[in-house]
Amino acid sequence: MKILCVSDQIDPLVYSTQAKERFSDIDLVLCAGDLPSDYIDFIVSTLNKPTYFIFGNHNLTEFSYYHKQKKHTGPHPTWEEEHGVLDMGGSFGAIYAGFKVLSDKKLRIQLKNGKSRPLLLAGASGSIRYNKGLNQYTDRQMSLKLMRLIPRLLFNRIRYGTYLDVFLTHASPRHIHDKEDPCHKGFDCFNTFIKRFHPTFLVHGHIHLYDMNSPRVTKVGKTTVVNAYSHTILELKDE
């Protein structure tokens, strides 16, 4: 399964009339934050592939549509109401993965026993808190948000034999690709998360790659941490 990952910058190789031909073998698109909605819409309409996104700490015009209470007349709150997430479904063609665990039943991972299972994703929007802006969190706040994902992750383990294939974030884990300035420090809780739930990939944005010698890919235990800045392509292999 080939995955196009984008973040933080409108890449002329992606935002191009040749994009459909250039990325014809892509199965999935992951948008790791700080991208205009029009750009995501272009990717969806041009490539016509399943596309998931999270928000960063910029380009937050639509953020409030996905994070506010939703009226519900039933006796019990929905998952979205409980966690303050409004599911807009396919707004501008992509699926919001922020603070959710999702399974894509159309994208299948082939197993050694001849069977298959859906692709399993989770996402976390936002960056470390540095000026009290929108979609910024302390490490403790982010840790609490991730804890709410645990029941669904445990269900994945029981149902599919694994917790997660891809963890899509904007910020990086602490001391992995991050910087020391207040805005670009990573989350310690992301390190705890990947050590506990072993996603094959953690795909993040937020860290701009101006130096070609800066690391884009780092292996941490069973997880490969990938900086999606501008664009990069991953291959998720069958089990």
Describe the structure.
The protein is 22% helix and 26% strand. The strands form 3 sheets. The chain has a 6-stranded mixed β-sheet with strand order 5-6-9-10-12-11, with helices on one face. The longest helix is centred in the N-terminal third of the chain and has 11 residues. It is an alpha/beta fold and 239 residues long. Helix 5 packs parallel to helix 7. It is built from 7 helices and 13 strands. About 9% of the residues have low confidence.
Layout: helices, strands, pairs:
Layout: E1 2-7, H1 19-22, E2 28-31, H2 37-47, E3 51-53, H3 63-66, H4 79-82, E4 95-96, E5 100-110, E6 116-124, E7 127-128, E8 136-137, H5 139-147, H6 150-160, E9 166-169, H7 188-197, E10 201-204, E11 217-220, E12 223-227, E13 230-235
Parallel strand pairs: 1-2, 2-3, 3-4, 6-9, 7-8, 9-10, 10-12
Antiparallel strand pairs: 1-13, 5-6, 11-12
Helix pairs in contact: 5-7
What's a concise summary of this model?
This protein is an alpha/beta fold. It has helices at residues 19-22, 37-47, 63-66, 79-82, 139-147, 150-160, 188-197, and strands at 2-7, 28-31, 51-53, 95-96, 100-110, 116-124, 127-128, 136-137, 166-169, 201-204, 217-220, 223-227, 230-235.
Offer a few descriptive terms.
alpha/beta, globular, 13 strands, 5-stranded mixed β-sheet, 239 residues
The secondary-structure class comes to alpha/beta
Roughly how many Å is the radius of gyration? Answer: 17 Å
Strand order of the largest sheet: 5-6-9-10-12-11
H/E order of the elements? Answer: EHEHEHHEEEEEHHEHEEEE
What percent of residues adopt helix (DSSP H or I)? Answer: 10-25%
- Residue share in β-strands: 25-35%
Largest sheet: 6 strands, mixed
Estimate the global geometry from the Cα principal axes.
globular
Question: Treating each run of at least 4 consecutive H or I residues as one helix, how many helices?
Answer: 7
Task: Enumerate the spans where pLDDT stays under 50 for 5 or more consecutive residues.
Answer: 69-90
Question: Overall mean pLDDT score?
Answer: 90
What is the first-to-last residue Cα distance?
Answer: 11 Å
Number of strands: 13
